[in-house]
Design brief:
Elements (H helix, E strand, L loop, with lengths): L4 H4 L7 E2 L3 E2 L6 H11 L20 E3 L5 E2 L3 E8 L5 E8 L4 H16 L3 E8 L11 E7 L13 E2 L8 H8 L5 H10 L6 E5 L2 E7 L3 E3 L5 E3 L3 E4 L8 H15 L4 E7 L3 H8 L3 E10 L1
Parallel strand pairs: 6-7, 13-15
Antiparallel strand pairs: 1-2, 3-5, 4-5, 5-6, 7-16, 8-15, 8-16, 9-10, 10-11, 11-14, 12-13
Helix pairs in contact: 4-5
Length: 288
């Protein structure tokens, strides 16, 4: 499959590559699209795939034979076979019926592959009115101008906790935010540091693991983290302190930037706006 970049680039409002997710706008997008197609079905991770730290094989692949690529519209389907089997059709297009075409294709492919879910992934450019937007906002933290303000509340790494077992209670309360999974990995695998914040003897919040990985251009980037504060301890500035501590960690360890996704209108979305991150647009996933 060969993409015509003069067709695809004008209809790509957000730098987002199927199976890889959001990427830096300066990365070679054309090469990345070609790479995920070439890699489809091998189960291998590309060297710069952030998901390689969590599994030993790639669970999502591009359905190469089902790609629809035209001047005004490109539909790029993927199949995720971990958890509920899911077909996702990524819609890059300006045609009036692009989303409808994507939904039709997602339902057909879900039936063909026996998938549990059929979904459509669409994109909204930064700067477009998004008061009613849903989904996640792609945020860019650029470290070329420094890490930003220092945290005004002390944080410490998990290993420095006076009673590390208290993290287990925090993780259990924050299962929905992924911390039970993270805690399991912390106990059996070598993962990067997890920064914590104590309120008395309670682990009130955490962010991590703190890790960097080169992107496709070999620039080191700070990888996304699990990030959360206990409900009873929100509104005290703890989330901002953890975030700033993480940014200082990334800066000290040579990261050029970080990309992350925040729920539109959520607490992390507002935090990133207040910390001056750049919006690269919105990604929306919905059932077909």
């Amino acid at each position: 499959m060969r993409f015509r970049w003069d067709w695809l680039a004008p209809v790509m409002p957000v730098p987002y590559v199927p199976t890889l997710g959001p990427v830096h706008p300066d990365e070679p997008l054309h090469d990345l699209f070609a790479a995920v197609v070439e890699n489809a079905g091998t189960g291998r991770f590309l060297p710069h795939d952030k998901d390689r730290r969590w599994a030993d094989h790639k669970a999502e692949r591009v359905l190469v034979d089902a790609i629809e690529h035209g001047r005004r519209q490109t539909l790029m389907p993927t199949l995720l076979d971990r958890g509920p089997v899911t077909v996702r059709v990524h819609v890059y297009g300006t045609a009036p019926d692009s989303l409808t075409a994507g939904a039709d294709l997602a339902r057909k492919l879900a039936a063909d592959h026996g998938a549990d879910r059929a979904r459509v992934v669409s994109f909204l450019a930064p700067g477009r009115p998004d008061v009613h937007a849903r989904g996640t906002r792609v945020q860019l933290k650029d470290f070329t101008t420094g890490p930003g303000p220092a945290p005004d509340v002390r944080t410490r790494e998990y290993e420095q906790l006076p009673d590390p077992s208290r993290f287990a209670a925090f993780a259990e309360q924050m299962t929905a935010d992924g911390f039970t999974f993270l805690y399991d990995r912390m106990r059996v695998d070598t993962v990067g540091p997890v920064l914590t914040l104590l309120d008395g003897d309670t682990v009130a919040g955490a962010i991590g693991p703190m890790e960097t990985m080169p992107d496709a251009t070999r620039r080191p980037r700070l990888l996304p983290q699990y990030f959360g504060v206990l409900p009873a301890h929100r509104g005290l500035g703890y989330g901002r302190a953890l975030w700033r501590a993480a940014m200082h960690w990334g800066y000290r360890h040579g990261a050029a930037y970080q990309l992350l996704q925040t729920e539109v209108g959520g607490a992390s979305d507002r935090l990133c706006a207040g910390e001056g991150l750049t919006s690269l647009g919105i990604v929306n996933q919905q059932d077909a």
